[in-house]
Design brief:
Elements (H helix, E strand, L loop, with lengths): L1 H8 L2 H6 L1 H21 L4 E3 H18 L13 H14 L4 H4 L5 H5 L2 H27 E2 L2 E2 L9 H11 L7 H32 L1 H15 L14 H13 L5 E5 L4 E3 L2 E3 L4 E5 H5 L45 H18 E4 L16 E3 L3 E3 L4 E6 L4
Antiparallel strand pairs: 1-11, 2-3, 4-7, 5-6, 8-11, 9-10
Helix pairs in contact: 3-4, 3-14, 4-10, 5-8, 8-10, 10-12, 10-14
The chain binds protoporphyrin IX containing FE (HEM).
Amino acid sequence: MCCICVHRILSTRRNLAFGHVQEQLVAVLIDRICTRAKAHPKGEVNLSLILISYANSTISRASFGDHYYKLDGDIGGEKLRQVLADFFELVVTTPMADIAPWLGWVDTLTGLEQRTRRTFEALDSLLERVVADHRNKRFSSGRVVGVDEDQRDFVDVLLDMADKDAEFQLDTDNIKALILDMLAAGTDTTSSVLEWVMAELMNHPDVMQKLQDDIRAVLGVTGPVTRDHLHKLPYLKCVITESLRLHSPSSFLPRETTEDTELLGYHIPKGTRVTIDSWAIGRDPATWERAEEFVPERFVEAPDDYTKLGHDFRFLPFGAGRRGCPGAGFGASSVELALANMLFHFDWGLPDGSRKLGASSLDMSEAHGLSVRRQAAQLVLAKPWFGH
Ligand code: HEM
């Protein structure tokens, strides 16, 4: 499955082909921020909700194509957002029955069982519909029609493999599971990375100003920032790298030893569950100066390709080794493009007039779910920038 993800679904070529769609989705994101800000008397927007919706539409579009799939009776995608939120929460919830099978009745009493069933049914019927539509589209006069390589979404790629590749025997359930894996692994992480970077920038207005100056100097007076501009924005990468060091969305990376192992004088038997604490590694004062501080400048002299897996074990935002994130390139371009455009098009502030942008003005408490995200919803002021 990992091999399918890396070489077929999330390859560099497919990521590049998806570039123009990503740019369209960022345009929708900017438009949405603008509309919400205009609709509020003080220009306030709930950035958390907008970023979740952006991440969700990016992964859904890459997975399902440009057809807008809705749950029954859904208006404006709100029901789907809620079902996905429930799904992300349920994935990391341990049912009582798993701890002590004879206490399984507690899960019925707390409503966990019913909520799980409801969420499963909603997502399963949606994915059934997606796969059936794609199958129908592929059949023309009784024969399979290929979809142009650059136009194919994840479901197209998987159906092609199911039809033509004997090596992988994929059935509909496998395809649904893989797509759900993508949604689960890609949505929450992308939006929480964006939220943390914005929160750090809010708390460090000097860094935000420097980054905005950089972006606006490269763009001049006309936007939007496209994927072609990104390599001209090295400071943007330093800011994201530093934020990932402090706020890796997956703080624990679980592994199991496949053989008896000796490590630093300890004997670790085969089959031991080992948890790598990526959060603590990123903040280790033995490796990092001013480890707890947000200092993007530390990467200016020695830029780091933060998407490269396991080349620098001082921090592991995308994990490492065979189980490392196959969507790192895809996730990075979604984050960079969205962030650069948000900073180009708007000047940002905090809603409460008495609070100024500056150190510790935002609550940075963490909430643990499928990924580590900010606990408080991010309410901000977005003022369109009229330099363009
Ligand atoms: C910037 C955002 C992202 C971050 C920080 C991130 C981080 C991670 C991490 C830390 C892991 C576990 C790696 C390990 O155990 O060594 C992981 C796994 C994974 N990621 Fe990402 N990821 C991001 C975006 C994405 C995207 C956009 C996709 C897909 C479109 C994706 C797909 C996956 C998959 C399929 C796995 C493996 C899940 C499994 O083992 O079942 N990720 N990611």
